[in-house]
Structure formats: C-alpha cells, structure tokens
Amino acid sequence: MANVKEFSxxxxxxSLVSLQKADSKLDxxxxxxxxxxxxxxxxxxxxxxxxxxQTRVExxxxxxxxxxxxxxNIIKDAQALVKKYEKQxxxxxxxxxxxxxxxxxxxxxLEIKLAEKHIKDANEEIGDKARLLESAKKAxxxxxxVLKHKKGELEKIIGDTxxxxxxxxKISAEARxxxxxxxxxxxxxxxxxxxxxxxxxxVHRDACGGCFNAIPPQRQSEIRQHKKIIVCENCxxxxxxxxxxxxxxxx
Length: 251
Fold this sequence. Notes:
Helices cover 76% and strands 4% of the residues. The chain folds into two domains: 9-31 and 180-247, Helix Hairpins, CATH 1.10.287; 34-163, Orthogonal Bundle (Helix Hairpins). The two termini are 35 Å apart. Strands 2-1-3 form a three-stranded mixed beta sheet. By secondary structure, it is mainly alpha-helical. It has six helices and three strands, in the order ααααββαβα. The protein has helices at residues 9-33, 36-89, 95-177, 181-193, 217-225, 242-247; strands at residues 200-204, 207-208, 238-240.
C-alpha cells in the first residue's frame, strides 16, 4: 500500500495561503469579466428564440398562401361551372330546368364570393404576419449586433487573462492536494460566507485582517508558532502571521 505523505501544520498553512491567493486572483478575473458570460449566454438564447419565432411566422405565411391558392382554385372551378350552367340555360326545355340551373349558378356565385372574402381576409392576415416577421428580423439584427459587441469584449478579456487564469487554476489545484478534505471543506465554507471570498487572512497591526477584531498577544504568539490551525473568534477566518502570508508567493 502506497504511503500517503503527511504534511506539517506549517505546510498546510502555506498551502492554504497559496490556495487563497490563487482563488483571490481567479475572483479578480471573474470580476473583470463581470456579467459578460451570462449576458452573452442570455443573448444567444434570446436570438435562438427570435429565430424560432421568425421561422414559425414564415411557416404560417406559407400556410396562408397555400390556403389562398386553394381558394383561387375553388373560384376557378366555380367560374367554370357557372359558364357550363350558362351554356346549359340556353337549351332548357321548361321553367323547372331553368330554375334548377339558376339555383346552381347562384350557389357557385356564392362560393366565389365566399372564397374571395376568404382570400381578402387571408391577405390581410399575411400583411399582419409580414409586419411581425419584419419586426422579428429587426430584433434579431439588433440583438446580434449587441451579441457581437459583448462577445468581442469577453474574448478580449479571455485573451488577456487566459494564460494567467490557467496558471492560477493550476496553483489552486496543486494547493488543494496538500490540504486534507476536512480542512478544505472548512476553507470553502468560510470562503463562501464572505463576499470578498477571504477565508485565510493575516494578522495585521494586532488585528484580524478580515474583520479587524483585536487579536491578543498570546494568540498572536500561537499563530506565529504554526503548531495548530487557529481561527478568528469573531469572524471564523483562519489566521496566518504576516511573515508566512507574505513569504508565500503564487506568481
């Protein structure tokens, strides 16, 4: 069975400082990016939705145009029947036949008028859909312009910080391997409790570097000895002496 290396308290504290400094640098890069990643994602989703709406409106317009063609065919067929009945009316033998033919012609003329009304209404609907489609196209163009600008900003920041960010991720990962899970969990819990993400702070001018609560001389002496993990009784952050804090570099 492979031996698991045991780290001294001082080594653990040094790793925690490295971890904190690397994570703080990553926080700075995240702040530099700001809301851009989320804004880009939201814009991409919005544009996808607008494209879907545009496609739906185009399909609806195509469906209405097919409906109009159907009605035009109905008119064409009805007009052909009217001509047929007009020709037949020239050879009627009695009033009964004449009335029957006239009734059929009236029905076909009504069919034509109804189809023409449907076509008129459908064309008006196409006009409404066309305006909606134009609005959707303008919205897409506008959003794509904003997206291009936001992406350009984000890509520039990523380009400027990518190498540095990767290096700090590497330092953070290596430091985590040297911190036992329980202590690492405490670090994460404390770090997530504060907006500035500081879980490890140095004692500065006899006070906690996080909450500025005074640290008694005896407590400061224990902190400098690096024999145990000591936390601030006021804010719960892990305390480090300034010498160890400043001697631990992450660049």
